[in-house]
Structure to design on (300 residues):
């Protein structure tokens, strides 16, 4: 489980660092930028697959539909909902709603142990404190709730696919499928203003988002998910605001306030409490036939 803890912590911390590069890309078309981000990430995965000589695996109809739903809800709808919620209410509201991901995943994963629920509650409190409730509107709240569904789908819909595809397979397939979907959304929302030649700083920002926040973080998360289970893995979603706080301080963008530090401390405490719960043994049918990371390095 130790590797899973390290992977989940690193994945969610890296996702939180996107706040540090947001200033570099704030003037680029929003939806076009997301499509560009996933296009670059898909190109990176293509290189990885070729270098590792990954072999393609034929998916069943059910697996294909599950992968399509994962991409649509967990990547495309999630990004659209976050963007629209931020436009209506600012980042604080959607950040606070997404702070409930640990509880949502704990409940979605079945009957969680009491300590997992308690830990998830502490993580939610810490994430809320670090993010701040701010002011919101009804459309902003509704979009934030849609984003929450997307975030939960990103993990739950991956679980049945990981034994066969592994972390690399699920990450690469979903990233590649997201590109045409996001370009389609961008054409509807931004039309001819969808893309333009990025400046050097914008290009560097999107390379970081694609390579680190998308490729590396996706792989680490999907590697950790089958080891920890959704309940325990969800606890680490609280590391997102922690990553944002640390990155802001490191770059000199924003020094952490007392609520920031208190919220980060609560997140860590909640993770410790949740991980202290005894893990129920998986049923034989639920055990992956091939380890997630190892299987992904051989088949896709």
């Amino acid at each position: 489980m130790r590797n899973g803890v390290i992977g989940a912590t690193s994945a969610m911390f890296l996702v939180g660092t996107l706040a540090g590069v947001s200033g570099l890309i704030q003037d680029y078309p929003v939806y076009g930028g997301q499509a560009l981000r996933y296009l670059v990430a898909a190109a990176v995965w293509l290189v990885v697959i070729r270098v590792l000589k990954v072999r393609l695996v034929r998916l069943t109809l059910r697996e294909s539909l599950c992968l399509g739903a994962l991409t649509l809800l967990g990547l495309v709808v999630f990004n659209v909902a976050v963007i629209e919620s931020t436009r209506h209410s600012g980042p604080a509201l959607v950040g606070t709603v997404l702070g409930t991901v640990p509880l949502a995943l704990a409940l979605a994963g079945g009957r969680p142990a009491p300590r997992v629920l308690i830990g998830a509650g502490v993580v939610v409190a810490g994430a809320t404190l670090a993010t701040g409730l701010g002011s919101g509107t009804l459309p902003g709240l509704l979009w934030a709730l849609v984003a929450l569904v997307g975030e939960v789908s990103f993990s739950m819909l991956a679980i049945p696919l990981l034994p066969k595809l592994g972390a690399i397979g699920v990450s690469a397939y979903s990233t590649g499928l997201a590109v045409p979907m996001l370009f389609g959304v961008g054409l509807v929302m931004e039309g001819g203003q969808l893309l333009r030649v990025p400046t050097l700083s914008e290009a560097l920002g999107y390379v970081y988002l694609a390579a680190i926040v998308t490729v590396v973080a996706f792989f680490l998360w999907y590697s950790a998910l089958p080891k920890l289970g959704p309940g325990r893995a969800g606890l680490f979603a609280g590391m997102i605001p922690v990553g944002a706080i640390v990155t802001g301080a490191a770059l000199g963008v924003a020094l952490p306030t007392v609520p920031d530090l208190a919220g980060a401390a609560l997140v860590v405490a909640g993770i410790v409490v949740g991980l202290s719960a005894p893990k129920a043994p998986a049923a034989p049918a639920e055990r992956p036939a091939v380890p997630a990371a190892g299987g992904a390095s051989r088949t896709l």
In short: DSSP finds 13 helices and no strands in the chain. Residues 200-235 form the longest helix (36 residues). Residues 282-299 have pLDDT under 50 and may be disordered.
